[in-house]
Design goal:
This protein has 12 helices and 11 strands. It is α/β, with parallel strands linked by helices.
Length: about 325
């Protein structure tokens, strides 16, 4: 099977250069690389095609490969990620089964990331933050999924074309919409494959990380009512419920002693859980003191930001991308 690797980006940058370098080292016989920047730039290699798109969103950029890509499979990867050598080989093996429409693999934090980036990765792969979705950030057992991020996503071209591409301006969230369309219209499987690995550079803790979290939460909250088939799940509501319980018990504690006790007990238990989890998580790693502080505070702030923005999305009439 020929594969078309699709990379949406704003412009050429060091992460993209790294991504292309590793893509060209893939152990796979037949593939092309389609790069979709705002404006064209020069890159001389027979496998690489630069396709300028103008200033549009990543899903709109990826749709530009419709009618251009020659591969039977489309392999989406972010420009700030790079593939493991056997990425395509491991992914392709599962497409011999006709019921498989797409596969996704883990996006692992690279060891060379800075301390604050590495801490961001630890926050994401923590079950205290990602709950049942930790497999997106580290290799776990193979499973069928119904929603998967487009930073490491391989789909049959014929299905992508039949759907008209992402067919949405949502970003982030375009991948949720695509996966839902695949399951509703084709009734085929999307498989999580732990061997199909890419390495994904993280945003720095704290502000860039939290800004990304706010975008995820805003769209997931909106999708919970708009696309309940895959987004109306208790795990997505937990940070918001925690935030509301905290506010309610804290306010009531100003007037009623039992609520004050409840508030203090709740906060103490919450902080102790994160404290001991952070110690356990960083114990085999270097720079433990710095990582402990970053992980401990990073999990707390991620919970609060996600909880607040999820509620904002839940009560929003529409997203700014919808016109």
């Amino acid at each position: 099977m020929k594969v078309s690797i699709v990379i949406a980006c704003k412009k050429n940058n060091p992460y993209l250069e790294e991504c292309l370098k590793h893509c060209l080292q893939l152990d796979y016989p037949d593939y092309e690389i389609l790069v979709l920047p705002d404006e064209g730039f020069s890159y001389t290699h027979p496998r690489i095609r630069i396709i300028p798109t103008g200033e549009i969103t990543p899903p709109a950029k990826r749709n530009k490969v419709l009618g251009i890509a020659s591969g039977e499979l489309l392999a989406f990867i972010d420009d700030d990620a790079y593939p493991e050598k056997n990425w395509l080989k491991r992914g392709r093996d599962y497409f011999h089964e006709s019921e498989i429409a797409a596969i996704g693999g883990p996006a692992i934090t690279p060891q060379e990331d800075s301390l604050r980036q590495f801490a961001s990765g630890l926050v994401y792969e923590s079950f205290l933050v990602s709950d049942g979705f930790t497999y997106r950030y580290r290799p776990e057992k193979i499973r069928e999924v119904d929603d998967y991020p487009s930073c490491n996503f391989i789909v049959r071209r014929e299905i992508f074309e039949a759907l008209g591409g992402f067919k949405t301006n949502f970003w982030p969230g375009e991948d949720t919409f695509l996966c839902l369309e695949i399951s509703k219209k084709f009734h085929k499987k999307i498989l999580y494959v732990p061997e199909a690995i890419v390495y994904h550079h993280r945003r720095h803790l704290f502000f860039p990380h939290l800004k990304q979290v706010s975008h995820y939460a805003l769209h997931r909250g909106y999708f919970a009512k708009r696309f309940p088939e895959t987004s109306l799940r208790l795990s997505y509501f937990i940070p918001s419920l925690f935030f509301l319980i905290l506010i309610f018990s804290g306010f009531m504690g100003l007037f009623y002693q039992p609520f004050k006790f409840l508030f203090l007990s709740f906060i103490s238990f919450y902080l102790l859980v994160i404290f001991f989890f952070s110690i356990f998580k960083i114990s085999p790693l270097r720079k433990r003191c710095e990582l402990f502080f970053l992980l401990f505070l990073g999990i707390i702030l991620t919970h609060f930001i996600y909880g607040i923005y999820f509620l904002k999305g839940l009560f929003s009439k529409k997203m700014k991308e919808e016109k």
